[in-house]
Amino acid sequence: MKLSYYKLPNGERNFGDDLNPWIWDKLIPGVIDHDESVAFVGIGSLINDGLSWRTRHASKRVIFGTGVGYGKGEIKLDESYKIYCLRGSLSAKALGVTEDLGITDGAVLIRRVYKNTAKKIYRFSYMPHYELAGKGWELACKELGFGYIDPRWTVEKVLSSISQTEVLLTEAMHGAIVADALRVRWVPIVTNSTILAFKWQDWCSSIGVEYKPNYIERLQNPREKQDLLTPIRLVRDWSRQKKASIALKQVAMNQPTFLSKDSCIEALTVQLEERLHLFQQDVKNGLFESSIC
To answer: Taking burial as the number of CB atoms within 10 A of a residue's CB, which of 72, 96, 206, 246 is the most buried?
Structure first.
């Protein structure tokens, strides 16, 4: 059974995607291998019109805690799909399956493999979308005395940094999901027009929270290469970073923070565990064994 998840080109990292090999190796050790005849589709907005092609070598497809998102056209499910749970009720509705399958995002199971015991260092930290991560936001956060969490860091470093934060301002959805799971308050940010509101609404509905993002201006990273225009660019970059830090501070100081109820997140975690146990029983009973000799 091969793990299917989104991988950035050139070996770049993204926390939400990289959670997959990290968490599933701990939750279902020995199940994932390189057998492409069965695809395990895990964390991410992976269910779209391109999923069948991406898993074209698979005769069976396991869906666990995954969300509908991106892509175009109609999503067609056939008998090769075995859905154990989805990110939320919106994904269930989009696929035309029973709403009880829309439990919550699979990343919530981080609660069972990672404990938030770190000492708090930052009152606020900011985690940008991976496309906008870099020096620009790092410098803006430094100006404020905020923590900066780069989604391109290793999973362990991101988890540690979130745990050291009291309130996470984040454009990265899995930053918010993991923060909520680890009982760290969070605030949704949007600077990137490509952010898919549907996936946030899908997850937020599962934890009983209304999605209310805060919109601030996109911040480009400063140009590293130096030339004759470098002095002018330095002034421009400083001005942009100053503006971004002011906007981020206004959100931090004036906008509400979010956190699901303790009873809710624990109940959802238990439901995911029950579905995972069912999956493991199906594996044990040979449901996903290849018919090819």
So the answer is: 206
**pLDDT given at position 291:** 53
Domain ranges of the chain: 2-111+266-284, 115-257
Average pLDDT score, the chain: 93
The token duo for 273 is 């565990």
What's residue 138's pLDDT? 95
What distance in Å separates the CA atoms of residue 26 and residue 49, rounded to the nearest whole number? 30
Task: Tell me how far apart the alpha carbons of residues 237 and 250 are, in angstroms, rounded to a whole number.
Answer: 20
d(CA 62, CA 45): 14
Q: Assess whether pLDDT exceeds 60 at residue 293.
A: no
Question: Cα–Cα distances in Å, from 141 out to 2, 168, 178, 238, 252?
Answer: 39, 12, 21, 13, 12
Q: What HEC string does 163-222 produce?
A: HCEEEEEECCHHHHHHHHHCCCEEEEEECCCCCCHHHHHHHHHHCCCCCCCEECCCCCCC
Q: Say how far apart CA 210 and CA 197 lie, in whole Å.
A: 12
**What CATH class has 115-257?**
alpha beta
Sign of CA dihedral 199, 203, 204, 206: positive
234 has pLDDT over 80: no
Cβ neighbourhood burial of 210 (10 Å; 0-12, 13-18, 19+) = exposed
